[in-house]
């Protein structure tokens, strides 16, 4: 199976390099070949600032996808906008045959069963709640 990695941190003071070893180890332990890496130092809240996520989606929708799995550190690396936006984003990948898998949320694997979507929704709610609270 081929994998793409998406690494994101929220501020310029942070660095995506701390996520990379865990993502590589996870992929290697499953025999997945890493074929693309998308790196981003942008807030998930700033509209238009997630250029790598936009490129990733464009690659998927444009038929340039060379991978079966999008591997991420955690779901909140994709979005902190809540349940609807995160489920919609994950569905955007999966409709094109690319499964989203989180290293820190093992229930995101496509074989996780029928509770997968509910756990994703709970995680999305928690990420938005935490982000909203920090903004206060």
Element order: H for helix, E for strand: EHEHEHEH
How many beta-strand segments? 4
Name of the level-1 CATH class: Alpha Beta
What is the overall number of helices? 4
Helix content: 25-40%
Please state the overall shape, judged from the principal axes of the Cα atoms: globular
Structural category:
alpha/beta
Q: Spans of 5+ residues with little confidence (pLDDT < 50)?
A: none
Strand count, sense and barrel status of the largest sheet are: 4 strands, parallel
Radius of gyration: 14 Å
The end-to-end distance, rounded to whole angstroms, is 43 Å
Mean pLDDT: 85
User: Strand percentage, roughly?
Assistant: 15-25%
Number of domains: 1
| Name of the CATH homologous superfamily | Resolvase, N-terminal catalytic domain
What do we call the CATH topology? Rossmann fold
Strand order of the largest sheet: 2-1-3-4
CATH architect. name: 3-Layer(aba) Sandwich
Can you give a write-up of this model?
39% of the residues lie in helices and 18% in strands. With 136 residues, the protein is of the alpha/beta class. The chain has a single domain (2-135), classed as Resolvase, N-terminal catalytic domain (Rossmann fold). Strand 1 (2-9), helix 1 (20-29) and strand 2 form a beta-alpha-beta unit. Helix 3 (83-94) packs across helix 4 (116-135). It is globular.
């Amino acid at each position: 199976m081929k994998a793409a990695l998406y690494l994101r941190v929220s501020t310029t003071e942070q660095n995506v390099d701390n996520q990379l070893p865990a993502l590589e180890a996870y992929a290697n332990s499953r025999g997945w070949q890493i074929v693309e890496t998308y790196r981003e130092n942008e807030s998930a809240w700033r509209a238009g600032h997630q250029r790598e996520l936009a490129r990733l989606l464009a690659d998927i929708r444009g038929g340039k996808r060379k991978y079966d799995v999008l591997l991420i550190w955690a779901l909140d690396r994709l979005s902190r906008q809540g349940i609807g936006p995160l489920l919609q984003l994950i569905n955007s990948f999966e409709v094109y045959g690319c499964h989203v898998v989180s290293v820190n949320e093992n229930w995101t694997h496509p074989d996780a069963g029928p509770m997968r979507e509910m756990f994703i929704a709970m995680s999305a709610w928690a990420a938005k709640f935490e982000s909203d609270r920090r903004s206060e």
